[in-house]
Amino acid sequence: MRSKETPESETPVSSLLTTYSLLKGPTMRKNRHLLLSAIVATLLAPLPASAQQLVRVGYSGTGVAKNLHKTIERAGLWKKRGLDVRLIYFTSGATMAQAMVGGDLDLADSDVPAMLNAVSVGALDGKLISVYVNRFPFAFVVRNDIKTPEDLKGKQVAISRFGSSSDVTTRMLLRQFNLDPEKDVRIIQATGTTRVPAMIAGQLHGTLLGTYDVPIITDSGCCRVMVDMLELPIDYARFGQVVPTQLLKTKRDLLLKFAEGLIEGIYVFKTNKELALSVLRAEGVKGPEYSYPRVAAAMRERPIPETKGVQAVMDSVRNANSKITQAKDVIDGSLIEEIDRSGYIKKLYGR
Q1: Residue at 6 is within a domain
Q2: Residue 128's beta-bridge partner residues?
Q3: CATH label of the domain that carries residue 157
Q4: Is residue 287 left, alpha or beta, with left meaning phi > 0 and alpha meaning psi from -120 to 50?
Q5: What is the mean pLDDT of residues 65-74?
Q6: Domain closes at, from 207, 231, 255
Q7: How would residue 9 be classed by pLDDT, with cut points 50, 70 and 90?
Q8: Tell me, what's the pLDDT at 12?
Q9: How far apart are CA 264 and CA 170, in angstroms?
Q10: What Cα–Cα distance (Å) separates residue 93 from each residue in 35, 89, 109, 147, 235?
Q11: 341: buried, middle or exposed (CB in 10 Å: 19+, 13-18, 0-12)?
Q12: Nearest alpha carbon to residue 290 among 178, 143, 137
């Protein structure tokens, strides 16, 4: 049944304008002034949730991607653009890729290798639209009794899930140690929340941890950092967004808004240290003063996918089932390029 109070087609603004037009005469000037203020306030008010565009964003892990998104949310950068960004957590990049294949995600953040692995084997028709960390923001930590890589032989090393970024990166690192991932160590699956306790308890001998988690395990006294991968001069497209290819055609304007919000979010994270540290503390990051400057420095002002880092990913995930192996076939940097050409990024950083 239609409400008698407000016609179905009438908006709050049109109702106020109608009332404003009926207020005449000198005695009504004050009321007209107050009503005009109300109209302006209504026009400038944030869009209600129902009027905002929904964006379903998947992420895995509890570090870089999540904390960047929390900073963007705290700064109001999504609402500013009329976006209702819903973060959806996955225990690994592999399961996140499955969700996008099933049509349950608009964007996937945080685990570029796992997503491009799905693209490579033909399971997902997707494109990489941004890369905001082109390094490894991880450390390979080991028990104190592991003095050299050779000591890992026969020991248990944990990853989040087979086919995930932690799996791909761990295997790559083991090969750098001249160890055969299939023969020299026992690789087991363990979610991110269980790996640290298992390392402390001595159930594991090595694992890859995000930069944010390093202080937890080193402060326990059980373990040490064998390799700080952020210090390695290796281009590797680790954090960024992958979207279904069709979305670039059907929802390009929405993706442009998202990309612009991401770029401003990176700027806020890098330049508003107090806000970023506040977010990290709220998310339970121990010793954020250690991790914040390292992660902030790794975030790229112009997060366009670059061939070298993307090709490194494609090479690392290549297997017998790979159908797409070249970086140029999975990159679409047009959104970031368009924003960059507008001068928006230079304006943000005052250049």
Answers
A1: no
A2: 242, 331
A3: 3.40.190.10
A4: left
A5: 96
A6: 231
A7: very low
A8: 45
A9: 32
A10: 52, 10, 9, 31, 20
A11: exposed
A12: 137
Per-residue pLDDT averaged across 328-345, rounded?
98
339 in Cβ contact with 138 (< 8 Å) = no
Q: Are 177 and 149 in contact (CB under 8 A)?
A: yes
Q: How many domains does the chain have?
A: 3
Q: Are residues 128 and 266 in the same domain?
A: yes
pLDDT bucket at 265, cuts 50 / 70 / 90 = very high
Host domain of residue 24: 12-44
In the block, which residue shows the tokens 């996955």? 90
328 and 241 together in one domain? yes
- Determine the distance from the C-alpha atom of residue 239 to the mean position of all C-alpha atoms in its chain, rounded to a whole number: 6
Domain check: are 260 and 123 in the same one? yes
Tokens at residue 322, please? 């790979």
Write the secondary structure of 69-136 as one string of H (helix), E (strand) and C (coil).
HHHHHHCCCCHHHCEEEEEEEECCHHHHHHHHHCCCCCEEECCHHHHHHHHHCCCCCEEEEEEEECCC
* Lowest mean pLDDT across 2-16, 110-124, 192-206, 315-329: 2-16
Residues 322 and 343 occupy one common structural domain: yes
Say whether both 58 and 206 belong to one domain: no
Strands 107-109 and 239-244: antiparallel
Instruction: Match 């016609």 to its residue by tokens.
Output: 7
Give pLDDT tens digits for 136-149.
Answer: 888 999 999 999 99
**Does 250 lie in the same domain as 272?**
yes
Arithmetic mean of pLDDT, 109-127: 93
- Note whether residue 3 is domain-resident: no
Assess whether 158 and 107 both reside in one domain: no
Confidence of residue 25 (pLDDT cuts 50, 70, 90): low
112-120 vs 93-101: helix crossing angle, rounded to 10: 50
Closest by Cα among 236, 182, 184, 230 to 209:
230
